[in-house]
Specification:
Oligomer: single chain
Number of strands: 9
Strand content: 25-35%
Order of helices and strands: HEEEEEHEEEE
Shape: elongated
Radius of gyration: 28 Å
Distance between the termini: 70 Å
Number of helices: 2
């Protein structure tokens, strides 16, 4: 084989060089996304959770049986999940839900009296 007949390495061709540059740019971009830029903007300040659950049951709208409903129940659930409090919540008025209170851990399975949250927004 003469030197003219030797095959050129892929990485020394125009296509190989472009492929190498693309791989480096992709790696740098992925590393930046994984590590972040260190700014405070990467921290989660709030998060909305749809149809919150407690031990396999929908979270009851009341903290204890028919008492301390709405904010206290939502706040207690948020605190249990590591957030400071609920900044917003929406009641789910669907009849027939089986729910569990977060304060007394009682199960409510009455056909028309058990209500839950359709969403809770946590505040860090």
């Amino acid at each position: 084989m003469t030197s003219d007949e030797k095959k050129q390495s892929f990485w020394t061709t125009h296509s190989g060089i472009l492929t190498g540059i693309a791989a480096i740019i992709t790696a740098i971009g992925g590393l930046y996304l994984a590590i972040g830029d260190g700014s405070k903007g990467n921290e989660v300040e709030s998060l909305t959770f749809e149809y919150p659950m407690l031990d396999g049951y929908r979270l009851d709208y009341c903290h204890t049986w028919a008492q301390d409903c709405s904010q206290k129940a939502a706040d207690a659930w948020c605190i249990e999940k590591g957030f400071s409090k609920a900044s917003h919540f929406v009641q789910d008025g669907t009849d027939g839900l089986v729910t569990k209170t977060i304060g007394s851990h009682q199960i409510c399975n009455e056909p028309v009296k058990c209500y839950s949250f359709s969403s809770i927004t946590w505040l860090k």
